[in-house]
Amino acid sequence: MDNPNFKSGIAVLVGRTNVGKSTLLNALVGTKIAIVTPKPQTTRDTYHGIVNRPEGQIVFVDTPGIFKTQPSKLVTNLHHKVRDAIEGIDVFVHVADPTRPVGPEDQRVIEMVSHVTKPKILVLNKLDLPDRPFRQSWVERGPKYAGVIEVSALKDKNIDLVIKAIFGHLPVGPAHYPEGQVSNVTNEFWITELIREKLYLKTSQEVPYTAVVKLEKIEDRKTKDGRSMLYIKAVILTIDDRHQRMLIGQGARKIKDIGSFARKELEVAMNRKIFLDLDVLVDKDWMDKLT
Ligand SMILES: Nc1nc2c(ncn2[C@@H]2O[C@H](COP(=O)(O)OP(=O)(O)OP(=O)(O)O)[C@@H](O)[C@H]2O)c(=O)[nH]1
Ligand SMILES: [Mg+2]
After folding, report:
1. Are residues 109 and 76 in the same domain?
2. How remote is the CA of residue 15 from the centroid of ligand 2, in Å?
3. What is the per-residue pLDDT for 77?
4. Is there an atom of ligand 1 within 6 Å of 175 CB?
């Protein structure tokens, strides 16, 4: 490494569900790593998004949102992932939404990090919204943090201030990831996530929360006229016949809609023709098999 002052470290993004953590991760890295939807409880895994600058490298860790809901295997699993993600980090980034009051989920985040001795930064998101009635009650909490930054993850505003603030707290050290790598998400996982995003956007009530997407096959094939294409076979697992029927829809319209929405974005992102073969199956125990 040429730069003897090269800084390196891990910053974790934590906050209640729906505050915009995944949108912020994508804005920080400058590319879509994590899926984003208007529905709460979108993120189910901890993703790494990597920012490389001349002064160093920051690994941002996106985490599932903290929410108050009926205890279930899925929810317990998500909250454990957040706790694990907090271990071994250098900077803690609490992402909050000043359009909503400081609620029990925020209290849970505050409680969760009260033991964290590492620097904490408060990021107030959604600066683009004209009405942020709870901004002041968040700003008053400012002294508990090493800094307060107002951003719009959606409109890419003040994102560099977050990067700058974090570098201010990072130790000198070698990079965790090779330069050029922007995330730890594999192509295969990203494909299933993108399908799950479309499923969230196209279904309602409990349907998205009872479903998971698995990739079964991915291979290079040729179209009838000899052009190259990527064949993807994926399956949506859900917990019972009723949910399976809702996901398939009348005349298979729902599943076709989810499939073509996902395929279109995959084709743009991967810049090639894609055939997406999507099925819906029942596996009532999928949540119990979570690790
Ligand atoms: N107006 C506005 N909306 C935003 C901003 N950032 C995120 N959103 C919206 O807020 C919603 C939730 O965003 P996500 O990034 O999925 O939120 P999250 O905190 O990752 O949510 P979970 O993964 O469920 O915990 C989406 O509809 C986003 O478009 C912002 O800066 N301004
Ligand atoms: Mg998220």
Report:
1. yes
2. 9
3. 82
4. no
Within 159-275, where are the H helices?
A: 159-167, 187-202, 241-248, 253-270
> How sure is the predictor about 261, in pLDDT bands with cuts at 50, 70 and 90?
very high
Q: With both helix axes pointing from N to C terminus, report the angle between 253-270 and 241-248 in degrees, rounded to the nearest 10.
A: 60
Last residue within a domain, chosen from 167, 199, 227: 167
User: What is the Cα–Cα distance from 122 to 113, expressed in whole angstroms?
Assistant: 12
Rounded to whole angstroms, the Cα distance separating 241 from 3 reads 59
The range of the structural domain enclosing residue 234 comes to 187-282
Bridge partners, 280 (sequence order): 236
Shared domain for 193 and 155, answered yes or no, is no
Which helix (H) or strand (E) element contains residue 92? Answer: strand 91-96
What spacing in Å lies between the alpha carbon of 67 and ligand 2's midpoint?
12
How far is the C-alpha of 260 from the C-alpha of 254, rounded, in Å?
10
Distance between CA 22 and CA 43 in Å, rounded? 8
With a 6 Å cutoff on the Cβ, whether 38 touches ligand 1 is yes
Q: What share of the chain is helix, strand, coil (3-state, %, to 5)?
A: 35, 25, 40
Nearest ligand (C-alpha, residue 105): 1
3-state secondary structure of 189: helix
Q: How far is CA 252 from CA 79, 245, 284, in A?
A: 35, 9, 21
What does the block give as tokens for 144? 């508990």
Q: Is the separation of the CB atoms in 171 and 7 below 8 Å?
A: yes
Q: How many domains does the chain have?
A: 2
Gap between the Cα atoms of 85 and 87, Å rounded = 5
φ, ψ of residue 37 to 5 degrees: the values are -145, 160
Hey, is 227 helix, strand or coil? coil
Gap between the Cα atoms of 93 and 99, Å rounded = 18
Q: For the segment 134-182, what is each residue's pLDDT rounded down to a tens digit?
A: 999 999 999 999 999 999 999 999 999 999 999 999 999 999 999 889 9
61: its two tokens: 């860790």
Question: Rounded to whole angstroms, how far apart are CA atoms 252 and 226?
Answer: 29
